[in-house]
Amino acid sequence: MEYREFAPPEALRPIVKAGWTLDVPGGENERFRHLATPDGCVELIHRLSGRSWWGEEQPACFAAGLITEPVELSLGGGSRFVALRFWPWAWNSLGHLPVPGFIGGWRPFGGRKAPRTPDQAFAELPADLLDPSTKALAEAILASRSAAELGARSGRPARWLQRWFEREIGLPPRTYLRLLRFQESFRGLPSAQGTLADHAAAHGYADQAHMAREYREMTGRSASAARGRAKPPFL
Fold it and tell me: Cα-flanking dihedrals φ and ψ of residue 93, to 5°?
């Protein structure tokens, strides 16, 4: 499978993490297993050809919610996808189904013309989607590795942040930041230099055992096994 990722324009970075395309080889009667890992985003996915399944067969356009554990997908041969990976607060600002409503699942998303490329999808997004306070909080979230650090960066008390995360994301701040830390670590794993202990320390884990526990939860495998198979954000 050929997966490609596209960085958004600078003005859209508090809104979308990335755009991506996926081309699946083979004939229409073939099916391929695909394991997705948590990355803290909601995805708006357009399938331009072929078929796909997550529990049941999916329509040509669907929204994939946050996941907190690995999810096995089945992709038909010859299928092609174009998608955007939204930060949860931006998805909510678009006025679609709120993020807490479909954690761990997906929903049909009809009535939209499929973009042919991520750049076309980027061009359709308003750069001023987020109000200034939400944008500032988004930047604090993306720069923080712990709830305490987020509180310090944002200037918001812990109780306020807990209520905001419950309403906007459906996960506690600590849990959501764990997803972001894991994905940052996972993305750097294939090219990591040094030992796994070094990698754990560089990404804010208490020690290698701490990272190993999180990898078991988020990938179903040990960090050492994931290192040999990782094709971030997939395994």
Answer: -65, -20
